[in-house]
Amino acid sequence: MSQPESAVADAQAGGRAQESLAALAERYGLRRAIARPSLPAYLRQLWQRRHFIVTYATSKTVSNYSQSALGQLWQVLTPLLNAAVYWLIFGVILAQSKSIHNYPAFLITGVMVFTFTQRTVTGGAKSISSNLSLIRALHFPRATLPLAYAIQELQVLGWSMAVLIVLVLGTGEPISWLWLLIPVALVFQFVFNLGASLFMARVGAFVRDVSQLLPFILRTWLYASGVFYMITERTKGLPSALRWALEFNPAAAYIEFMRDLLIYQRFPERWAWVTCIFWAVFAAIGGFWYFWRAEERYGRG
Amino acid sequence: MADVMQEPLSEELSNMTVGTPTVIVDDLHIVYKVYGASAKKGNAANALSRLVRRQGRPEMKEVHAVRGVSFVANHGEAIGIIGRNGSGKSTLLRAIAGLLPAHKGAVYTNGQPSLLGVNAALMKELTGERNIVLGCYAMGMSPTETREKYDEIVDFSGIGDFIQFPMSTYSSGMGARLRFAISSAKTHDVLLIDEALATGDREFKKKSKDRIMQMRESAGTVFLVAHNLDVIEETCNRVIWLHKGKIKMEGDPQEVLGAYNRV
Fold first, then answer.
1. Chain B residue whose CA is closest to A22
2. Which residues form the ABC transporter domain (chain B) (predicted)?
């Protein structure tokens, strides 16, 4: 160190103990401040923060709606309006509905299920980049933020599902024992969403342009997921690999699974179970691992 | 109050070699990048021409905020950090807290230093009550601890019935009081305070000073950044004067503050 201004500090530190500061630190067992915890330790820390995750999610919902006159009623109105718009365009104007049994229910189920994934992924992508001040001020496992956004969407989903079930009943579908499997389907989808949003959280934290690009990607995904049409019907006469790819798409799988339960009253086929579980496990493990690998770099530089 | 405290402080200062170190900063350099610092107009055509000319992000500037700072902080010390705006005080605190990576050199700490900065977790649309719970959880307190501390936080903040109103209705002083009350509810090994005491009335300032002394006594180390030099003089036993990212002077508060005031 050549700066004369630091000489005071040097003299102070050097005169205090005739050893380098690094050696002094080691003697007293002091560690460098920045380090990424091991994966099990990280999971433990996350578990300790569970109260923060839930409180943060609820508070954000309250805070978001506090400015609007109708307040939390929007949690019900938004899915209703969404369903109405899509029904108007695809059910009435473009008249898709002829070949599909109970098209309104078919469409609304698709829209609601897809919206759940779409909103969670969008939330995840901005969870780190829009909370930089929080990240720069406090220590906590950063995965709490995408998790809190996912929990927030889960709370929104509760209302969407209530709206969905009322609408499906309104279109004349009977209540079935299979509806007891709806929570199972939602758990699969939620776990998948969680993984996808953790993945997008890291991408969104380091590639800032993602937030501009994401709406287009998600809209493409929406059109590829058989929300408005039946994949089997549309891919007739096309190579079977295309149909397979479209049906293996996680969003399509979760949508079809839900339609089986809600509309067709049939137990989902085995491949549907396999696809849904595969995507949940794959996304959760992959997304979590990918997010954790950059833990010490969020909010830096 | 200042007179009462000067005595034990100077005594402690002379005994400083006895205390065990809690924070060691070793030739620390911090460099961070700033985006969008360009003088050019930031329109789409410029952005496109940059892309074409393969210039990446030319608006990016590097700021060398801390340039080779070294010191040792011990148990039971309260260290004031002074300096002009942009002298690297807040950056140094963030680096000690482990929130900014060192470009060169290192920060060694015992346990986890925490920045007294719970405000980022609070939401102004929510009531004070809700924010207390949220803030406590954000600092990693358990629900039981939060319930135990709740009344103490309300009392300490001294904002009375306003606790049931959204924080957006608070005056800036009230907000600062609540934030300080929340963040000081948790016991920290090493506490870093950045300008938290700038606002608030006289009585609250006294209360917060007492709180800082209390934290020092519970064998922690406190770092305090403030432009209000009275606060530093009355609470700290050592002062570091930063100038352009380097330590210009360090030592007894009266000496350093005296020199600082003469500039």
1. B26
2. 46-263
